[in-house]
Amino acid sequence: MDKTVPAGAAILLDFIRKTEVGRTDRASYDVIYGQNQHKLKKQITAMTIGELVDEQASFTKRFKSSASGGYQFMRKTLQDLSRELRLNGRQVFEPDLQDRLGYHLLKRRGYEEFMAGKMTVTEFAKRLAMEWASFPVIAATKGAHGQLKRGQSYYDGDALNKALVRPEAIEAVLRKAKAAGNELPVLAPEKRDAENLPSEPEKPKPVWKSKRAWLWSYIGTMSPAALMGAFDWRVQMVIVVSIIGISIYSILTMKQVKDKITELVEAL
């Protein structure tokens, strides 16, 4: 379900797909009337709206209806939605777009008024039945082709459409949708593999554990003594040589210097 569809509307749209095409999975968005999608050269979720509308021109003759997608959009409905929402026909008819268009149809039929308590369940159910022929009216009313009883399709009598669910199911899903409200769905946090988790920053070593600190301490202590002639000249020579060696070691083991040396060696 598209992330911009609120919880209550998502419940209704899932129910509509289940009722209209018999399923709610990814494949539900590719269904055309009469389950004839396998007769097409290209899945409708891979078509643009413009391509689908062009294809639908032959659907009524071939399949008895142009109803397409998870919400069984008629050709005229898609054309109206394209004009109303200023779609340019190049949008791909993928599942999220179908969800957004389905949500717009719900709003057309009074979804927001129903959720706000400004429209009765009976009236909203009738309006849904006007949009989706598989839905029954839940009270006696006048339909497209005459007087209707509770449980009949709004288009009963056209020799094509009939209600596919009981009115009690409509009442139950409307109660559920209203209880869910208009909150946007809370998305589960994305799971990440252990190897992709950011590593903790390396903690600096305590000074007393640092080799470099001890080496520089030695240099700092012995250098003045050597310079001041505090030891025999041979001892001083040993101290000076060790200081030079320690200095070179300390410099070469610095990370920046090591990296640079590695680069130079690899370049040779």
UniProtKB/TrEMBL annotation:
Please give the InterPro entries that the UniProt record associates with this protein: Lysozyme-like_dom_sf
Annotated TM spans? 213-231, 237-254
Gene3D superfamilies in the record, alphabetically?
A: 1.10.530.10
Keywords assigned by UniProt, alphabetized: Membrane, Transmembrane, Transmembrane helix
Specify the protein name.
Muramidase (Phage lysozyme)
Q: Which organism is it from?
A: Pseudochrobactrum asaccharolyticum
